[in-house]
Structure formats: structure tokens, C-alpha cells
């Protein structure tokens, strides 16, 4: 889609009001982070705008798309919360014509992260955690970190999610763990 207004309408149609507000917040925060850390601001904003495109879709619809695209059993048998990211990376390509590989990767890995994340992937992932509408214990500390150290902010964010999952006795997806390990082991 080449028209920005049309794109916003399409995104708006996929989700409820609050999720759309979050989406606009992530797009704005991703642009800011991109400017600060030297990623492409336009790509960051677009990835932010599209990252939760499938978040409010019925799980059956996401499942069907993931199966059709041969996603690993680990993902299909795991936590459904993770599906929207992988589904969106497919759907924004097929339905909206997004072809930029950096953007598709940033959308695909925005929830789990992965080892060796690109700058744009980190920007979108951190933006998802710190956009202005987000409220959770520790968010201001992560926002402060994100003013000068993107990796540190991301390690805090993913570490917080892992802690939260452990408290709830939920499974931690392997990619989330390797993303976290990768960030903290690089620090030295
Ligand atoms: O889509 P958002 O709510 O904006 O945020 P998100 O895509 O980062 O995360 C969506 C949910 O996924 C959130 O409730 C935490 C959960 N999550 C993230 N990583 C993992 C996870 N859930 C499990 N079970 N395992 C993970 O590794
Ligand atoms: Fe998400
Ligand atoms: Fe929702
Ligand atoms: Fe999000």
C-alpha cells in the first residue's frame, strides 16, 4: 500500500481502539529510537505501525496462516500469544505488499526477539515496551535506559518478561531466552 492514510485505515480495521492507540505509540517511539540510534526512521515507524497487525485476529485464523507457511511445531504447539508476530510478518507481505526484509524481520521478532537481532529489530522491540501508553512496574527505568543504551534497555525489557513468565509458571520460548542471553553476554 503506497498511501499512508489508506494504510492507517487498514491497520485501524484490524484491531480495537486501545490496540490502535498502542500501535501509533509504538510507531512514534520506534521513529524516535531510530533517529537516536541510527536506524532508518521510516522503516522503524512502518514496522511499528504494522507490528501488531494480527494481534486481535482469531487464533484459528492465525493458526491456519502459520500452518500454511510451515512454521515450526515448537511455535504451533506453544504459547498462542507469540503467534501474532509471526502471522503479521506473513500477512503484511501478502495483504499489504510489504517486501522490505528488515521490516518483516522486525515485525516477526518483536515479541520473542532472537539472538543476533538487527538494529531495526531492537528498535521496534524496545519501542513496543516503552511507547507512551505502556504502564507496568519498571517501565520508566527502561525508558531512561533507552535514552542512551538500546541493548541495555532491551535486556531489561526481555529480562522483565522472562521474570513475569516464570512467576506465572508459563513457558519461556527458546528465542526469548537466546535473545536475552545474547544481549547480556555481549556486555562483558
Ligand atoms: O503484542 P503486545 O502486547 O504489544 O506485546 P508483545 O508482542 O511483546 O507480547 C505479547 C505477549 O507475549 C505478552 O503478554 C508476553 C508474551 N510473551 C513474550 N515472550 C514470551 C511470551 N509468552 C510466552 N509464553 N513465552 C515467551 O517467551
Ligand atoms: Fe505484539
Ligand atoms: Fe486485542
Ligand atoms: Fe505491541
TrEMBL record:
SMART domains on file: HDc
Listed EC numbers: 3.6.1.41
SUPFAM superfamilies: HD-domain/PDEase-like
Domain HD/PDEase: 15-142
Pfam families in the cross-refs: HD
GO molecular function, one term: metal ion binding
Hydrolase as UniProt keyword: yes
Enzyme class: hydrolase
Keywords of the record: Hydrolase, Iron, Metal-binding, Nucleotide-binding
Xref: InterPro entries: Diverse_Catalytic_Enzymes (IPR051094), HD/PDEase_dom (IPR003607), HD_domain (IPR006674), YqeK (IPR005249)
Catalysed reactions, semicolon-separated: P(1),P(4)-bis(5'-adenosyl) tetraphosphate + H2O = 2 ADP + 2 H(+)
Protein name (database record): bis(5'-nucleosyl)-tetraphosphatase (symmetrical)
Organism: Brevibacillus antibioticus
Lineage: Bacteria, Bacillati, Bacillota, Bacilli, Bacillales
